[in-house]
């Protein structure tokens, strides 16, 4: 008699451990991909929710941070995008307009 196991590879415990490992890796990948959905960031400040500029700027910076953490953009690009987002949000909401200068026409 030979000591060779006559069972097929898929019936052996090693194949079952491999299947469990693959399942665990797939579950970990799904959790990583949907981490923002499963674990949302801190609740927004209620005072900032009323200010359209703050709301616009917070959304824009969150998107920029996600792109930077994902490796889509580097630090310099993130800084540039942040400045552009601030200017765009100020223009859209007229928030943070320069103070009125008495006796002078508005800056355009």
The share of residues in helices is 55-70%
Number of helices: 5
What is the H/E order?
A: HHHHH
Task: Determine the oligomeric state from the structure.
Answer: single chain
Q: What fraction strand? A: under 5%
Please provide the count of β strands.
0
Structural class: mainly alpha
Which of globular, elongated, flat, extended, rod-shaped describes the shape? rod-shaped
Largest sheet: none
Mean pLDDT: 82
Radius of gyration: 27 Å
Distance between the termini: 96 Å
Uncertain regions spanning at least 5 consecutive residues: none
Q: Could you characterize the architecture of this molecule?
A:
By secondary structure, this protein is mainly α. It is built from five helices and no strands. The longest helix has 21 residues. The mean pLDDT is 82.
Briefly, what is this?
The protein is mostly helical.
Task: Considering the chains and any ligands shown, give keywords for the structure.
108 residues, mainly alpha, 5 helices, rod-shaped
Give the helices and strands, then pairings.
Layout: H1 13-33, H2 35-38, H3 46-50, H4 52-69, H5 75-93
Helix pairs in contact: 4-5
